[in-house]
Amino acid sequence: MPELPEVETIRQTLKQLIINQTIDDVNVYWDNIIKRPSNVQTFIDRLKNQTIIDINRKGKFLLFELNDYTLVSHLRMEGKYQLHDANDPIIKHTHVIFHFTSGKELRYNDVRKFGTMHVFKKGSALNHKPLNILGPDPFEERYTFDYVYERLKRAKRNIKAALLDQSLIAGLGNIYVDEVLFNAKIHPEKRANELTKKQIKLIKQISYEVLKQAVKQGGTTIRSYVDGQGEIGMFQQQLFVYGREGEPCMVCEAEIIKLRVAGRGTHICPACQAK
């Protein structure tokens, strides 16, 4: 699943490609992707003649800022945006096409069909689901030590589950939670409310540092993630534990193992992250 660094990379790439493009028409081939408005034709009508003024991000969501509306898009497992010429062949699993007056097309492709799109009146998106339930991401001003400390001390779940909770901290997913906990030397099954002040400070700092570095590298290529120009991310070359089951730890050479924590495959070094 694209996480914050991948979504931020896509945002930056799309800003170079589609700012000031005006939507002439929209084709929707899989109605279930459109969540708001519930009527797909209304979704299409609202986007017609709208110009893309800016592209923002909230957690893992892309926010396409238009003249009168905001299009909120979540890529979920394998959603991708790519820019095409109108006469390019349409590949399999292309579910939404935004036709621009320039003759270009922004195509949304999603093998699993899990992605979502919402359209809100301009200025109101943050007041409604899915955005109004998100916590701050590590790049926001609200992401302070006091905020993280208070939330984790209230959480009775294991720390892996707490960090995956987007209402607590937005943007962290399975890959980066594993990396953050490894760097903080914290076992993922440890209860969040049992962490020391020092451990919570480490989580707060390392979350920011890991995501910042991942954004610099263009994200992590897991399965079929690519950015808006089809380029792969390179942060996978710097992963310490995720996807490295059976390999030696780069710090202590103990064998990386895979557990199931919070319902997710979880990679740890049993020596560096002892319970």
Describe this structure in words.
By secondary structure, the chain is of the alpha+beta class. It has 2 domains: 4-133, N-terminal domain of MutM-like DNA repair proteins, CATH 3.20.190; 145-268, Helicase, Ruva Protein, domain 3. The protein has 6 helices and 11 strands. It has helices at residues 4-18, 40-47, 145-154, 159-164, 174-184, 197-216; strands at 23-28, 34-36, 54-58, 61-65, 69-74, 79-85, 94-100, 104-110, 116-121, 257-261, 264-268. It has a 5-stranded mixed beta sheet with strand order 2-9-5-4-3, covered by helices on one side. The chain is elongated.
Quick rundown:
The chain is of the alpha+beta class and 275 residues long. It is built from 6 helices and 11 strands.
CATH class of the largest domain: Alpha Beta
Low-pLDDT residue spans: 219-227, 232-237
Q: What would the CATH topology of the largest domain be? A: N-terminal domain of MutM-like DNA repair proteins
Q: SSE string, helix = H, strand = E?
A: HEEHEEEEEEEHHHHEE
**How does CATH name the architecture of the largest domain?**
Alpha-Beta Barrel
The 3D shape can be described as elongated
